Amino acid sequence: MIGSLTGILAAKHPPHLTVDCNGVGYEVEAPMSTCFALPAVGARVTLLTHLVVREDAQLLYGFGTEAERRLFRALIKVNGVGPKLALTVLSGASAEDFARCIRDGDAAQLTRLPGIGKKTAERLIVEMRDRLDLDAAPGGALSTDPGDEAQAALVALGYKPNDAVAMVREAQRDGGEAGTEDLLRRALSRALHRRSDRKG
Question: CATH 1.10.8: does it fit domain 146-199?
């Protein structure tokens, strides 16, 4: 997984960017908010990235801030929202403004974004409420859910998504609030004990 790029901004044709990292040019797509904040071509830049692997392509998306990347990752989990539409949302609204729309249930404001119809706006409000920590800051901020992170880590380790969900839920029942590492440790420990019991 490519988590970030640091190199020379070789080309900037929003939303397309090229970052030269030691002679290798990485093509990146970025929201307008990121593109407009970048320096001139030839300057050194650092972008946080998210890699999307499809059957016909590997696409790299770049972001100037962690808040933008977290919002992008939360958006693409919503049914019917792909990377292109997620970039459109980020290009048309700041993370704070988007969180405010979700908090207030302002579907009308969301439909002003290109590609967002009434049904998609309503779906975003319903599904994104659980992914936004709306009380953390006046404008709302993206939260990183330890359960989601633990599930993603288990999938990365080779567990099936459904199994990962079940393992994390069991780990969450073991105790009160827990961070990602604690949940992951508990889930793997349970899995290890099960394997030992079966062998015994």
Answer: yes
The whole-model pTM stands at 0.65
Distance, in Å, from the CA atom of 67 to the CA atom of 73, rounded to the nearest integer, reads 10
CATH 1.10.150.20 fits 66-142, yes or no: yes
Tens of pLDDT, residue by residue over 23-73, are 999 999 999 989 989 999 999 999 999 999 888 888 999 999 888 898 899
4-63 CATH choice from 1.10.101.10, 2.40.50.140, 3.40.190.10, 2.40.440.10:
2.40.50.140
> Which range has the worst mean pLDDT, 95-109, 113-127, 135-149?
135-149
Q: Which long-range contacts (CB under 8 A, 24 or more apart) does 135-144 make?
A: 137/96, 139/96, 139/97, 139/99, 139/100, 140/96, 140/99, 140/100, 140/102, 140/103, 141/67, 141/95, 141/96, 141/99, 142/67, 142/70, 142/71, 142/74, 142/95, 142/99, 144/70
